[in-house]
Every structure is written in structure tokens, then in C-alpha cells.
Amino acid sequence: MKHLHRLAWISLLSLVLVVGLSAFMRHVATGLGCQPWPTCHAQYSGMSGGASSLAVSVARLLHRVVATGTLLLAITMLVIGLRAGPRGRREAVLAALLLVLALGLAVLGVFTAGSRLPAVALGNLLGGFMMLAVAARLVGPPAAPGLGAAAAGVAVLLVAQSAGGALVSASQAGLVCNDLRACAELARAAGWPWQALNPWFAAGLPPVDGALVQGLHRLAAIVVTLAVAALGWRALRAGRRPEGWALLLLLALQAVLGLVVGSIGLPLWAVLLHNLASALLLALVVRLI
Ligand code: HEM
Prior knowledge:
The chain is an all-alpha fold. It contains nine helices and no strands. It has two domains: about 1-140, no CATH class; about 140-289, no CATH class. Helix content is about 70%, strand content about 0%. Protoporphyrin IX containing FE binds near residues 165, 174, 221, 224 and 271.
């Protein structure tokens, strides 16, 4: 089991890299940082990436190598868990889940290569986040027994919030408005375009319709922030100081990154960190379930 938990740590770190690389490739493909910025963003057609094509090629190669390594690690952990009998049942189930998610993402990648459909971006982002969350469970037993139900609720909120963020990115609505009031006014002027929330249709809509999605993401961030803060506070009171402080500090960082991303014109570094901080928040919360 010790050996398996060590492999789970390696998977966790590899998945942080995979999530980051996949976000980098996705954002470059939707024109983040394209030239001339920012006028090219909403009309971006894949012709003028902001990052050099060398950087994208290196990222693609690294992503393939590390993702394949993670798949092999999942198979190895599954075998170790199965061979340990009843003692390794929990680990075997989690490793099998990791394997299913990895294969699902591989199939999605093969059949949707080059797709600009927000539903595909959502599938990629959430699939990667789920893998990270499962790996976080595999590294050891739950970190704070007693907080399980609250942590499960917060994990659901984080997944929903991350899906909303991915929809903002994939609909290229990140620059449409830069505060909650502006988003609400634009959404009202556009006649509350609820179809913008449909990840199968959002790509064909005018970018301004994304103001509704971005406004909801900002509004929901208030609820999610309060929920994560309450969980962090409860973890501290339950004597889980490392988990509690890690949650509170990561949350503070995420709030600042959200504001940077949402108000100063989508710098690529901040969008990538905003994505990674979301994935790490989810992994930390899942450790508490
Ligand atoms: C706990 C709170 C939050 C979480 C978990 C979260 C999560 C996310 C995620 C996962 C994405 C997608 C990133 C990607 O596609 O790679 C995103 C995008 C975005 N978020 Fe958040 N977010 C939070 C709070 C905020 C706040 C407070 C703001 C602004 C005040 C904000 C503004 C944005 C914007 C503008 C985008 C779109 C970036 C783009 O166009 O690429 N977020 N968010």
C-alpha cells in the first residue's frame, strides 16, 4: 500500500502538469493572447496564435508523454490494489476510476480533435479535474473524517463553478464585461440569452451573449468563496491545520486571480493560474471527503 500511495503522489503531480498543459493548448487554440490583442479575440479563427508554435508543439508532446505515463500509473495501481485483496479494495476502485477517466479523455481527444465546441472544452477540463480529485483520494485515507458531507457539498459547488468558468472561456466571453454590473447590463440588453448556457450551442452565438455566463460565474464565485472559506474554517477548528490553512490561502489566491483575469484583459499567465488554482482547490476539498 505504501508503494501504491507513493505512485498516487506521482500521478497527482503529473496530473497538475497535464491540467496546466491542456489549459495552455486550449487557450492558445481559442486565441488567448492572439495578435493584434484584444481585437482578434472574438473573431479568432485559429490562424494567429499568441504563443509561438514551438511552445505549443512542446506542450503537446509533453502533454502526451505525461498523460500516457499517468495512464500506465493507473494500471499499475489497479494491479497492486487488486493483488492486495480486501485491504486494497478502496485503492483498486479509485485506480479503476482513474483509468476509466483517462481512457474517456483519450477517446474524447481522438474524436473531437480541433473542435471548438464549448461542450468539448468542458469535457476536457472537468475530466482532468476529476482525475486530479481521484488521485488526491488515492494518496491516502480521508484527511479529516467528520467533514465528509460538508466537503462533498463544496466539491460539487467547485465543479459547477469550474464548468461555468470553462464555458466563459470556450464562448470567448472573458473580455465582454469587466465587472458584475456591466455583465448584468449587457445580458439585459441582449434579452437574457439563456441559450448561452448550453455548451452545445454557445459557440454559434454572438460573444456579447456570453455576458450572462460571465455574470453568473462572478455571482456564483461569491457563494463558492463563502462555502470554501467555511470549510477551511471548520477544518482548522477540527484540528486539521495544514488542510485548513492550505484551503484558505489557495482561496485567497483564487479570488485575487479571478479579479485579475476578469478586470485587466485576460493575461494568459493569470488565466492558467486561475485554472490550476481551481483544480488544486477541488483536490484539497476532495481530500477531506
Ligand atoms: C472559487 C472561485 C472561482 C473558481 C473555482 C473559478 C474557476 C474558473 C475556471 C475553472 C475557469 C476556466 C479556466 C479555463 O478555461 O482554463 C474560469 C474562467 C474565468 N473566471 Fe473564474 N473562478 C472563480 C472565481 C472567479 C472570479 C471571482 C472572477 C472575477 C471576478 C472570475 C472570472 C473568470 C473569467 C473572466 C474567466 C474566463 C477566462 C477566459 O476567458 O479564458 N472567476 N474560472
